[in-house]
Amino acid sequence: MAYQGEQKRDTTNSLKVTQLDAQSEEEERSETAKLTRYNDGSVKLRNPNIELMDQDILYHLALGSGSHDLHEMFGDVKFVCMGGTPKRMETFAHFIMDEIGYKLPAGTQLQDISAFSYRYSMYKVGPVLSISHGMGVPSVGILLHELIKLMYHAKVKDPIFMRIGTCGGIGVEGGTVVITEDAYDGLLRNSYELAILGKIVHRPAILDKRLVRELKSLATQDDPYDTISGKTMCTYDFYEGQGRLDGAFCEFTETDKMAYLEKLRDFGVVNIEMECTIFAALTHYAGIKAAIVCVTLLDRLKGDQVMAPKEVMNEWQQRPQILVSRLIKKHLAQMGQLKSLASTPSSIKSPRRFKLVQQESEAHE
């Protein structure tokens, strides 16, 4: 009887902790919303200078608020999906088009909206944007600044940002899908560090816990692979920063490397990549719900080099896309929008300014 009583108290205490965590999470979300969203859910920028500008050129996307009707082009966006390479995100655009039943008008095809930037590739499939973000923190940061401004100019309401990527596992087999719960840097700090005007600024690297839980719930027993969640570490480097022995430089031993990786595993890190801290920090600072879903290409406790055959790699990279597509379909179904959709052609508000933006981007390849 005493043991049952202890069990009951433990269960009650655990429930109270869970409720307090949920309440704290909700309060923080409410406070962030006041700073970063208008009452209708559209994005509010934390920069008063933008409203004073004649036009805002989104230089690395080859778009501009004066040259394009951004509200007409992007106002219906609900999901912004990002991944490293242009090819992967073009593939995802075609995949999600089939998944949500999006129909293009006869004689048309998907086009790279940001082709003239020569930096990022962007495809729009109804309410879904599919965009390449390049490799590493700086590339993702530049893109996020301009995407957040794009959401503002387009008056997009309550967008969800998701990064679809690849990573190295820590004690996790290749092909495992990992949903990031918390993002840490190479010093295991839960923040993104940036030097602004000669001063170090730390921004919390926080992802939406509800999205984590929802994504995890969408994994099924029929999936021929594991889907897990855990802590993700972000590095500024693929080789030395991740403790690899096969870079051009290496001043540590295999023993040093293994001790470090074991330390990461003990801390709860299940994967390593190169974008999570800035992705989590900037979306959180903007009040945008965000999630990261990656597939592991290898277990770093067993080696450094990615050795899987090309066809296996291609199949593995589809796994995060499948999970993300399930979430998109679920949300569209809840909104009554999961049906065949007619595309809206891109709208040019000012042909002269459009040409100038295009030429300016082309001039700096």
From TrEMBL:
Compositionally biased residues, Basic and acidic residues: 1-11
Disordered: annotated segments: 1-34
Pathway per the UniProt entry: Pyrimidine metabolism; UMP biosynthesis via salvage pathway; uracil from uridine (phosphorylase route): step 1/1
Family indicated by similarity: Belongs to the PNP/UDP phosphorylase family.
Family matches, as Pfam families: PNP_UDP_1
Positions of substrate binding: 242, 244
Amino acids binding phosphate: 119, 163-166
Ranges of residues in domain Nucleoside phosphorylase: 78-329
Record protein name field: Uridine phosphorylase
